[in-house]
Amino acid sequence: MSNEVRRSAVRAVAAQAGGKTAVIRFNHDAWPDVTGFLVQAERTGVRACVQNPAWTFMMTRQFICTPGQAAGGAPFWFNSPTAPRGTAVVATLKNSQVIAGSKPYSPTPCTAWPNSTADRLKGTTCG
């Protein structure tokens, strides 16, 4: 993915967030886009974090939301490969599309959130 695509995505999310921290949730296959997005956001002074702490191993603690960030931030969902049909897309990256809001799209049913490691890593919520 080009740097310009990442810069454009960060600008679009920042504009939509309206000065709030971008709180990111995503399905598993979107993680490569999320890591690049977080690095670009940090480089440009845009506040962004991942809501699900199960991703600390990949994103590092620096990019995991605090409870305050999660509660007061602007939610975004990175959906791979594309956003659900009819959804307003904020940005398109190499492996995913970004939509405003925290409602995930899961093509497969949940197992047992929050007891399932697989669901935690996918960022899936059930119930």
Q: What would you note in describing this structure?
A:
The chain has 127 residues and is of the alpha/beta class. The chain has one domain. It has five helices and five strands, in the order H-E-H-E-H-H-E-E-E-H. A five-stranded mixed beta sheet has the order 2-1-3-5-4.
How is this fold's topology laid out?
Layout: H1 3-17, E1 22-26, H2 31-43, E2 48-50, H3 56-59, H4 67-72, E3 74-79, E4 89-92, E5 97-100, H5 117-122
Parallel strand pairs: 1-2, 1-3
Antiparallel strand pairs: 3-5, 4-5
What are the key terms here?
127 residues; alpha/beta; 5-stranded mixed β-sheet; 5 helices; globular
Instruction: Report the β-strand fraction as a percent range.
Output: 15-25%
Contiguous helical run count: 5
What is the arithmetic mean of pLDDT? 86
Number of strands: 5
- Low-pLDDT stretches are 109-115
Order of helices and strands: HEHEHHEEEH
Structural class: alpha/beta
Radius of gyration: 13 Å
- The shape, in one word, is globular
Distance between the termini: 35 Å
For the record, the count of structural domains works out to: 1
Produce a short descriptive summary.
With 127 residues, this protein is α/β, with parallel strands linked by helices. The protein has helices at residues 3-17, 31-43, 56-59, 67-72, 117-122; strands at residues 22-26, 48-50, 74-79, 89-92, 97-100.
